Amino acid sequence: MKIDPWSSSNYQDYARLRDEFGIENFNEKIWKELPQPHKLLRRGVIFGHRGYELILDAIKNKKPWTILTGLMPSGRMHLGHKMVIDQLIYYQSIGAEITIAVADIEAYAIRNLSFKETKNFALSEFIANYIALGLKPKKCRIYFQSKNQDVKDLGYILGKKINWSQMQSTYGFTGSTNMSHVFSPLVQTGDILHVQLKKYGGNKPTLVPVGVDQDPHIRLSRDIAKSYRLYNVTKTKDNKIGVFVKTDEKVKELLNFAEEKLKQIGFKKIKKITDYKAIYIQDAEEKDIKKINKTLAKIEPKHGGYGFFQPSATFHRFMTGLTGEKMSSSKPESAIFLTDEPEVAKKKIMSSKTGGAVSLEEHKKHGGKPDECVVYELFLYHLIEDDKELQNIYTSCKKGTQMCGMCKKYASDLMGKMLFDIQEKRKKAKQKIDDYLS
Ligand code: TRP
Ligand code: SF4
Fold first, then answer.
1. Ligand 2, from 371, 393, 406, 407: best to mutate by most atoms within 8 Å of Cβ?
2. What is the chain's Cα-based Rg?
3. Which of 103, 304, 343, 349 could form a disulfide with 412 if both were Cys (CB 3.0 to 4.6 A apart)?
């Protein structure tokens, strides 16, 4: 199996995907630690993560952290896109700082759109909807990739530690892939890591909520972040805690800086072996590694490094389209767009594919399959806040007392209201866009 961020593959078996790619399970144990956890987090829609511990730790200890996403301004914004924004708005409500990249370089390289087209589109379609959905301007910054020199520079600079075979095996690039396309994952790495530059507040845990199609980019950014570290802190084979300098230059200086810092934070039994490029901390234990690592990461920018935290990510399931395949902008009948007229959306719901049995008789007798029902998915992802109400529909469906007609009617009413509300707010959003742009 391969994850290709630019194809429209329909991923179904998320548990298998998680195992195969080493994504961690995002379970109850995690979301229960969050204040007022959002429904997408509570209901298994967010099914996996990489490195979320850093984010939890920052939230619990009120330490700075940031959340970042990007949008490719091609195609209309539908309910699948809304999921990411719902998460941003949730995290903003608990104090997170938000950064949003408009991926116009990627849209140019992959979708063949001009910068003028993507600009208009990003403003009128995506950003207007984000504001209408409730994203606040405070602690929120939206920028265009093509206009952010730091992002582009970083992409170029960090590309040095990735070679062509890695790019080929990660993305399936071939001899005929155009070079702008080849460069676009590095620009995305620039997006993801630039928020840790001093100018943007310095090193901090960063959360990137994405669909699983973006995992190759996440892995690339995490690999790059790690390979640019100057120090590596680990437990050695003979069970000592060691700090190793990873570069070949300025080894002595770097060892001295680390030694000094380690003393400052209270370690006393420090043994430096310059030939091994190492410091062994005899009075440290495994549980100290995290703290030591963080402390050393902080001094790296002063000594020519970056000290990046590896970016964290959460992965959400994709929405099933109303026709049964993946929800996609290129198939308008499969998707509900945020700019759909409420009446249009209602019609799409009324003619959608449910998990109901073949006949009413059968349905009453054997019940329906909410797990395979797109109308149920609308409730689960977007329309019903109350977990009990949702649970009732689920069990009544299985028992055969809830009929598809009832569900469709209820879903289209709720959807109609939601879209009408967004429509009204979007009208006012247009004048507010400048408050968000950097
Ligand atoms: N590649 C993403 C997409 O296809 C867009 C994107 C650009 C992005 N930069 C990002 C997503 C940074 C998350 C983080 O939609
Ligand atoms: Fe879906 Fe409702 Fe029909 Fe059950 S009764 S299959 S939840 S539409």
1. 407
2. 24
3. 349
What's the N-to-C CA distance of the chain in angstroms?
39
Residue nearest to atom 8 of ligand 2 (CA): 404
Which residue has its alpha carbon closest to ligand 1 atom 12?
70
Sheet holding 140-144, edge to edge: 24-25, 46-50, 312-316, 206-211, 66-71, 97-102, 140-144
Residues 44-57 have pLDDT tens digits of: 999 999 999 999 99
Smallest-distance ligand from the CA of 184: 1
pLDDT tens for 115-137 read 999 999 999 999 999 999 999 99
Pick from 309, 297, 90: nearest CA to 196? 309
Q: Are the C-beta atoms of residues 213 and 80 closer than 8 Å to each other?
A: no
Q: Which structure tokens are listed for 386?
A: 């109350």
Q: Please report how many Cα atoms fall inside a 13 Å half-sphere around the Cα of residue 193, on the Cβ side.
A: 32
| Identity at 94, one-letter amino acid code | I
Yes or no: say if 100 and 140 are a contact pair by the CB < 8 Å rule.
Answer: yes
Q: How far apart are CA 122 and CA 379, in angstroms?
A: 28
Task: Ligand 1 pocket test: pick from 113, 146, 214 the residue with the most ligand atoms within 8 Å of its Cβ.
Answer: 214
Q: Which ligand has an atom closest to residue 218 CA?
A: 1
What pairs with residue 67 in β-bridges?
98, 207
Ligand 2: which residues within 6 Å by Cβ?
A: 354-356, 368, 370, 373, 375-376, 393, 397, 402-404, 407
SS3 string, 330-348, reads CCHHHCCECCCCHHHHHHH
What residue has token string 């005899």?
282
